[in-house]
Amino acid sequence: MIEPVHAHWRQYANSGGPSSRTRAERIRTSLLGLEDGPIICPLNLCLALEFDGQDPVTAVGLLLARAGWPDAEALRVPFGQGLWPMVCRPNPELAPLRVATGDPFEVLRTAFLLGLCTAVRFDPGRPVLWTRASLTRRLELFDVKEFYA
Fold it and tell me: In the chain, how many H helices and how many E strands?
């Protein structure tokens, strides 16, 4: 006669299965922001805009037109030189530049740079995309050129 397996021993059954390889770990530190040591990923830029209830795409579009620029891609001339790919990290704590009261030149520069970002990557080679999501992100951009792992 086969005896039933005691509940205590069931935890050891199928020890090679996927449930035995699951684990949860909390990450408490980051390589981003390190400025010395073997891994260097310094903070390069902080980008955040506040629209005070205005539609973000409409607000920057009007500002762009008032400044005399034909489209967002034209902003590459004053703002796009010397940029390189970077890693982005959202930071909701960043103090934003207010669109309504900020220097229009700085607002357009920030909007241009946000338009080159996804939630995790800044890519100066991609098209400038102004969406509600891209313009309302609050991002820290980190230089990862010295990162080797």
Answer: 5, 6
